[in-house]
Design a protein that fits this description.
The protein is α+β, with helices and mostly antiparallel strands. 18% of the residues lie in helices and 53% in strands.
Length: 73
């Protein structure tokens, strides 16, 4: 039987470096941006992260795109 997938949500996780702790281990903070337009392209989303990066004092370590999908038969 064929499985149908329906995209139900898109979000971004921006991981910022906070520097080193007292033991010399790098600390991070993650900012989640949820309920993004389902039709947004990767270029659109990355462009938005560039704007967000400029408003933060900490350096951006990584960007993750999270897509929620419902599967059914």
């Amino acid at each position: 039987m064929a499985v149908t997938s329906i995209k139900t949500g898109t979000s971004l996780k921006l991981k910022y470096s906070l520097g080193l702790n007292e033991k010399g281990v790098e600390k991070f903070k993650t900012l989640s941006i949820k309920n993004l337009n389902l039709d947004s392209t990767d270029d659109d989303l990355f462009g938005m992260t560039a704007l967000m990066k400029d408003m933060q004092s900490n350096s951006l370590a990584s960007v993750k795109k999270v897509v929620d999908t419902d599967l059914s038969e």
